[in-house]
Each structure stands twice: as structure tokens, then as C-alpha cells.
Amino acid sequence: MGLKIAVIGARGLPASYSGVETHCEGLYLGLIEKGYEVILYSRENYSAYKNYKGIKIKSIRMISIKGFDTFICSLISTIQATFSDADIIHFHAQGPAIFSWIPRLLAPKKIIGFTCHGIDWQRDKWGFLAKLTIKLGEVASARFPHFKIAVSQYLVDYYDKKYNVKLKRIFNGIEIQPSLPLTTTKAKYNLNENEYFLFVARLVPEKAVETLIKAIKTLKTDKKLVLVGDSSNTDDYVAYLKSLAENDERIIFTSYVYGDELNELYSNAYAYISASKLEGLPITLLEAMSFARPVILSDIGPHVETLECDNSAGKLFEVNDLSGCAKAMESMLKLSDIELEKMGLAAKNIVLKHFQWQNVIEQTDKLYREYFSGSMDAIIIQDKVGEKSN
Predict the structure, then answer these.
(1) What is the CATH number for 65?
(2) Are residues 125 and 251 in the same domain?
């Protein structure tokens, strides 16, 4: 029997909401094949599964309070995991990690892990109390887990500078999918191949989707802007975006799209575009690149880090710079088909080299086993709470 892992922080499976769920699905399906037993604590209203492809789903029944569902679910999940037979409790995201002290105190023989997917308290949608709670989670994530992971070098550097704590960088991964012709989506959204810019994510303020809308409205082009995503407790923001897009038929809101329909949209986009102000390492960006799509990105750390692998894969513009975004789009419109193809192939090669799930699975498996090996006694002695533990 392999190691037993308790996973806290994902809403549930299958992944249909955010990068955390996508990360957990890709990682733990791979680890199950290596002999691990995985129990993922889920919100009852998110997933009806009790077992998802071998991952055991433990649904948490709770009273839903807007803005605090994650807090409540994480607390209940942590208490249950602490007194379970799990060998490792792995917290995903800063908010849930606020409770990582509980198993450190009450179950000292268990290994506690943490993965940082982003600096979550900086997200614009949170109010004062929620931001404070997540900040406390960030502090706890730097202090209590035995091992700590970040999905980008940007996040590694953040923890090193702020807390003098070393996180291990293990990138996000994706599964390479075959390109698909426009069929269902062609008629549904009135699209043609290579005739639209594509954005895929939740429609939340830190994604700065208004910059994309305002930018394309300044351009004299027949290219469309397809916005795949919808509200995440941000109905007012989505209404604002739709008001900006009024009277411009080039701007298309699809709401959430999954599976083959999403792959159709990726496969046939002219370019993928994001003006985001805050990311960890966006899986939707990696998915678009895997379909050999050129990219236009704001110059935040995770975007720059991705393109540093090969800067011929896309174009960067200064974050919060509407004019810069429009100019980047315009300059890409001037490229020849051959130049665009080369840019797209460079993007795909970045993913093939650095961002496949097998790399993530192998590195995480190694980390788990190192911390649960015969040298664990030495690790416990050295790993006093508050010290560097990686």
C-alpha cells in the first residue's frame, strides 16, 4: 500500500472552476497510478462524486456563508484529516493553509505540505475581513508546513523575500490535447478559424478583462475577442464588462466552456491574450500555448517567467497599460502567417519542455517520499516551527 495523502483546498473534482482544482486533478490522478491513496476534501455542493477515477472524495456538509465557504470547509476538512490515517496532509492555496498549525500540533507524526498557487489576498474581489484571513493563511503557510511548493519562480522569490523561507518550485502541468476544427463553436458563436483573440478565465477584477475590451475597441480590425468565463462572486464586475462591450459585435461572452468545445476555441484562435494583474501560473495560458497559439500578455512575473523560456513565443505589454495592450495586438495583426506559425510553435515547445504533468508528478512523488523516508527523524529535529524547512 502506498502513502495516504489528504488534500485540502480544492473545491472538488472533476475540475471545472479554477487552476487549483485543475492542478489537483492532474497531479493526484498521476500519483494514484504510482500507488498512492488520495482523499480529497470537497464542498458538498461542488461535486456529487464519492470516487473520481480512483481519488476518494470526502464531501463536507456545511452551512454556506458567502465569502467564507473556503474558510469553513477548510477548517472542517483539516480537523477530519488531522484525526484520519493519512500519512501526508497537503494544503493547496494560502487561505486553507491558515489551519496548517492544527495537524502540526495535534498530529505531530503526520507530514504537512503546502502548495502556493498565487498571492490570493491580493485579489480585488475580497473584502477587508477575507483579505485579512488569507494574509494570516499566507503567514501560516510560511511557518507550519514541513515542505512548501510554489508553482512559479515568482512565488518562490516572494516567499524568500518576505519570509526568508525557501519554497520548492514545481511548475503547473497540462495534458497535451489534439487540435480540433471549429464545428460546434463555429455556428454557436459565429466564428471562423484564426479570426479571434481568445481569453479564458474567471471574470474577476484582477484579470483586467476591461483592458482587453477597451483595447480591441480602439482597433480597426474584423478580428473578434472571445471571452470564455463568467462570474466568481463578481456579478457586478461581469455586468460592467458587458456594458463596455455593448454595440460591438466583435466582443463575444461565452460563459464557461469545457471539453471539446473549449479545445476547439483554443485550436483555432488567432492568439491568446491576457491583461491580468495577478497570477500564480495560469493553466489556461499553458493550455493555449499547447495548441501552438501565439500569446499577448501583461508583463507580470508569472507571464514574463513563462516567456523567458523562449521570448519568440509571444508579446508582452506593461500591466495596466491600455495603449500598450492595443499596440501589442496591432503589431501581431501585422505579422505574416509564417511568423505567426513560428511564434505558435515556440509556445508549444515551451509547454512540451517545461509544463507537462509527468514532470509535476515525478517531482511531487520524490518530495513526498523524501519527507516520509527513513530520514524523517532527522527532518523533524531540524524542522522547528518557523525555520526554513525545504
Answers:
(1) 3.40.50.2000
(2) no
The reported pTM is 0.88
Closest CA to 42 of 64, 72, 12: 12
> Of 352, 329, 69, which Cα lies nearest the Cα of 219?
329
The contacts of residue 86 (CB under 8 Å, 6+ apart) are: 4, 5, 6, 39, 110
Which residue range is the domain that position 97 belongs to?
4-173+356-382
Distance CA 201, CA 253 (A): 12
CA atoms within 13 A on the CB side of 167: 31
- 245 and 142 share one domain: no
Going by C-beta distance under 8 Å and a sequence separation of 6 or more, which residues neighbour residue 353?
309
Note the pLDDT tens digit of each residue in 142-199: 999 999 999 999 999 999 999 999 999 999 999 899 999 999 999 999 999 999 999 9
**At residue 364, what is the residue type?**
T
Same domain, residue pair 348 and 201: yes
Number of structural domains found in the chain: 2
**Residue showing cell 509527468:** 358
